[in-house]
Amino acid sequence: MIRLLLSGCAGKMGAAVRSLASSRTDCEIIAGVDLLGGTFEFPVYSSFDAVQETVDVVVDFSHPSALSPTLDYCRTHLGTAAVLCTTGYTPEQSEEIKEAAAELPVFYSRNMSLGINLLMELAKTAGTVLGESFDVEIVEAHHNQKIDAPSGTALMLADAVNQARANCMKYTYDRHSQRKKRDKAELGIHSVRGGTIVGEHQVIFAGSHEVITLSHSAQSKELFAAGAVNAAIFMAGRSPGLYDMSHLIQNGKEA
């Protein structure tokens, strides 16, 4: 039985992870960390310093500000893996994650959906096959409570296409402020916020007289919770290193 510490346990994604984990027999949430507190079937602490239980994996669905405390906890309790599911990290925090992976087992993906990660591979392939003759635009839509824009997933998709184009593309987020024709190396990223949209992403390849659109629509937060729990099971007992969904997918193929 894999013992989990859930950071952000009182939030919406925390609720989805709690519900999913309670139905599984291979893992158990034995403690939580959340500034809002909460009364659940496990003890909830306001900080990592107060946690008394011994855990195998920390699953973080909280806030970017919790990154350092999460990694510090894992350093203090060597052998504990971190599954980072939060979006909105700064470039400096992304470097912090990479540095921590030299001494800790760290799983980080800007989207925990298997479908999104498949979309990323398809976008990368399309970027390679279609080449510079196709303009690329990414449109993402989320609920009106989401803080960061563009989404981490949109940036992940942009990076995949950019990689296929030898990293020569420049990201454009604010085209309305520019009065000029579209640059060939431009990659537009656009955000929509409204209602209760769970998450929608489109990668548009617009060429001469034809348009190819790759898309993914999330219907429930449960799919992200499932990805996080599966990642936690995968990470238990792993050696230090930086892992992502590609490792989880490959592990599934080998199983």
What are the SSEs and their pairings?
Blueprint: E1 2-7, H1 12-22, E2 27-33, E3 44-45, E4 57-60, H2 67-76, E5 81-84, H3 91-100, E6 105-108, H4 114-130, E7 135-142, H5 152-164, E8 170-172, E9 186-193, E10 199-206, E11 211-218, H6 222-235, E12 241-243, H7 245-254
Round the mean pLDDT to the nearest integer and report it.
92
Distance between the termini: 19 Å
Number of helices: 7
Order of helices and strands: EHEEEHEHEHEHEEEEHEH
Which structural class fits the helix and strand makeup?
A: alpha/beta
Can you tell me the overall shape?
Answer: elongated
- Largest sheet, described in full? 7 strands, parallel
- The level of helicity is 25-40%
- Strand count: 12
Unreliable residue stretches: none
Portion of residues in beta strands equals 25-35%
The largest sheet has its strands arranged as: 3-2-1-4-5-6-12
Q: What would you report as the Rg, rounded to the nearest angstrom?
A: 19 Å
Would you give an account of this structure?
The protein has helices spanning 12-22, 67-76, 91-100, 114-130, 152-164, 222-235, 245-254, and strands at 2-7, 27-33, 44-45, 57-60, 81-84, 105-108, 135-142, 170-172, 186-193, 199-206, 211-218, 241-243. The mean pLDDT is 92. A seven-stranded parallel β-sheet has the order 3-2-1-4-5-6-12, sandwiched between helices. Strands 8-9-7-10-11 form a five-stranded mixed β-sheet, covered by helices on one side. It is of the alpha/beta class. It is built from seven helices and twelve strands. Helix content is 33%, strand content 25%.
